[in-house]
Amino acid sequence: MQQVMSKEEYKKYVDKKSPDSKLFLNVSRAFLVGGLICMLGQFFMNSFKAMGFDKDITASLTSVVMVFLGVLFTALNIYDDLGRFAGAGSIVPITGFANSIASPAMEYKSEGFVLGIGTRMFLIAGPVLVFGVSASILAGVIHYLIRF
Fold first, then answer.
1. The whole model's pTM is what?
2. Which residue has the higher pLDDT, 123 or 66?
């Protein structure tokens, strides 16, 4: 016959088995790494501005460099270690997005370019793209109707 625990006994059992929260440490690491990634992006942006590029070209070049670095660090297995250390701080939008596309593609490269890399590349990022495009269309329609 199985013994039934009371709510208090169950709470004590769960507290005993659950790991201690390291919230402050996790938030600090995320803030530090996310801030450093953003500082790196700002460094490139300032550098491109200093080279005389206009605002649009500067933004485009900075995006290209940050995506390249995200993919490069993923390929060198540095981004995974960064993610384990920093948690959410490593998913700063542009480098995190590059990582989410490159990781599955690298994992399935042995299946070939089309069935491996091509189909798996958007495994994680695909739903994000679909939702983002759908939300932007909806926002555009709402904006049009309000202004009409």
1. 0.67
2. 66
